[in-house]
Write a structure and sequence with these properties.
It is globular, with a radius of gyration of 25 Å. It starts with 5 loop residues before the first helix and ends with a strand. It has helices at residues 6-10, 12-32, 88-104, 136-152, 221-234, 252-266, 268-272, 333-339, 362-369, 417-422, and strands at residues 37-53, 56-74, 77-83, 157-176, 181-197, 204-212, 244-250, 293-295, 318-322, 325-326, 353-355, 372-379, 389-400, 403-416, 424-427, 437-438, 442-450. It is of the alpha+beta class. The chain folds into two domains: 6-232, PmbA/TldD superfamily (PmbA/TldD fold); 244-450, no CATH class. InterPro entries: Metalloprtase-TldD/E_C, Metalloprtase-TldD/E_cen_dom, Metalloprtase-TldD/E_N, PmbA, TldD/PmbA_N, TldD/PmbA_sf. Belongs to the peptidase U62 family. GO terms for molecular function: metallopeptidase activity. Residues 130-236 form the Metalloprotease TldD/E central domain.
Length: 453
């Protein structure tokens, strides 16, 4: 197929049409080689990334990537291949390699496309396409303004790790031999700043960032810099706390990691490998009875909004947790077959998970906990999905009499995720909207906090 014309390069719909035609051509080649089923993904991405430090430009990077990923099935034998070259000869070679691999593999009873009757038939616009006409000069100016605002916000800001501006446009087509062709387009933009307060051994670093699908939804550059400065200064002169069991309040930017651990434990891959502490827990209450978590794949401007999953299966709003009960697992067709279940439309992951919030804001949750730990940063990867054991480095703030009294660091917080989920006392209304996991602060009633002896 010919290279895109200048008009096609500027017109995303024309590029999507071209990718769709290319996908159908590749699938026809697979059929001609005897494949019983096949699917293909084609992507086009382009972006701009700028980094500055202390007012000077460190990097300016333009990206323009494209790729094709192909999977073919000969009965229940599977082969995959990929290429970044969309020229006809390369596509032919990719098809040949995928077919050759499939013929050499063992049969897998769970292999194959998702059922044809599950394919999406409606493709609403979720308002995810908002290109930012940003050139390098403008991006540099934004990054410099962001960092400068942060450095000037407080005399205790002594150094900087820099500021960054990123913008990206992505076009994608998924097609399979059921006759399904799905097109997606989205943009993403971000602005971040990381600053250092204090000097010598007393230095403390912190950061802030804003992220959105549309540039008008980003926080102002100066506000991002000032927020980074406030966070860095607030961490100066940390103290330790005595080891013990205390309430722990996860700030919203780290609270979503708890929900991420839940997703890891209820994902099909972990379950059919029997590597999850939530094995055989569907239908069981694993959270307090008031807690609800809902997948909403059709949110306007949602980070992971989609009409179909990675196999073309139609997405829909559905509970993950209702009244504290784990309603279902998170499955694609392969993991569903391995478990003797049906796909939940989650091949490729979850789509916009919303943790329903309570009546309390962040300050009210601090007051409610009385004495304990507010966590604003987590370090390390000490989480065992098989057992649920949880142990991570942490930093944040100590609370006495319902008020934050001083920063803390060099702590370890520990527990077991099964117990931690049951001990959740509240979810704040201070939702962090910079992710596809939408949650406010999460208050866990009791955890082990290891600090000073």
């Amino acid at each position: 197929m010919a290279e895109p014309t200048a008009k096609e390069q500027l017109d995303p719909q024309a590029q999507l049409d071209r990718l769709a035609g290319l996908a159908q051509d590749v699938l026809a080649r697979c059929r001609a080689r005897g494949a019983s089923q096949a699917d293909v993904v084609l992507d086009l991405d382009r972006g701009l990334a700028v980094n500055v430090r202390l007012g000077e430009v460190e990097t300016v990077e333009y990206t323009r990537d494209r790729g094709l990923s192909l999977t073919v099935y000969f009965g229940q034998r599977k082969g995959s291949a990929s290429t970044a070259d969309l020229a006809p000869a390369s596509l032919e070679a990719t098809v040949e390699q995928a077919c050759a691999i499939a013929k050499l593999t063992e049969e897998d009873p769970a292999a194959g496309l998702a059922e044809a009757e599950l394919m999406a038939t409606e493709f609403p616009d979720f308002d995810q396409w908002h290109p930012w006409g940003l050139d390098a000069e403008h991006a540099i100016a934004l990054a410099v303004a962001c960092e400068q605002a942060g450095r000037e916000a407080d005399p205790r800001i002594d150094n900087s790790e820099g500021a960054a501006v990123n913008t990206n446009e992505s076009l994608s087509v998924y097609a399979n031999t059921h006759g399904f062709v799905g097109r997606e387009r989205s943009t993403s933009h971000s602005l971040s700043c990381s600053l250092i307060a204090g000097k010598g051994s007393a230095m403390q670093r912190d950061y802030w960032y804003t992220s959105a699908l549309a540039a008008e939804d980003l926080e102002p550059a100066a506000a991002v810099g000032r927020r980074a400065a406030e966070r860095a200064v607030a961490r100066l002169s940390p103290r330790q706390v005595k080891t013990g069991e205390y309430p722990v309040l996860y700030a919203p930017e780290v609270a979503r990691s708890l929900i991420g651990h839940l997703l890891g434990a209820v994902s099909g891959g972990a379950l059919y490998r029997r590597a999850s502490f939530l094995l055989d827990q569907a239908g069981q209450r694993i959270f307090p009875a008031w807690m609800n978590i809902v997948e909403k794949p059709h949110l306007r401007r949602g980070f992971r909004s989609a009409a179909f999953d990675g196999e073309g299966v139609a997405t829909r709003e559905q509970d993950l947790v209702r009244d504290g009960v784990l309603v279902r697992y998170v499955l694609g067709s392969y993991s569903a077959r391995k478990l003797g279940l049906k796909t939940t439309g989650n091949a490729g992951g979850i789509h916009n998970l919303v943790v329903e919030t309570g009546e309390y804001g962040f300050d009210e949750l601090v007051q409610r906990m009385g004495r304990g730990l507010v966590v604003t940063e987590l370090m390390g990867q000490g989480v065992n999905t098989v057992t649920g054991d949880y142990s991570r480095g942490a930093a944040g703030f100590w609370v006495e009499n319902g008020e934050i009294v001083h920063p803390v660091d060099e702590l370890t917080i520990a527990g077991n995720l099964r117990d931690m989920f049951q001990r959740i006392e509240a979810v704040g209304r201070d939702v962090d909207r910079r992710s596809h996991i939408l949650t406010g602060s999460i208050l866990v009633g009791r955890m082990t906090v290891a600090g000073a002896a």
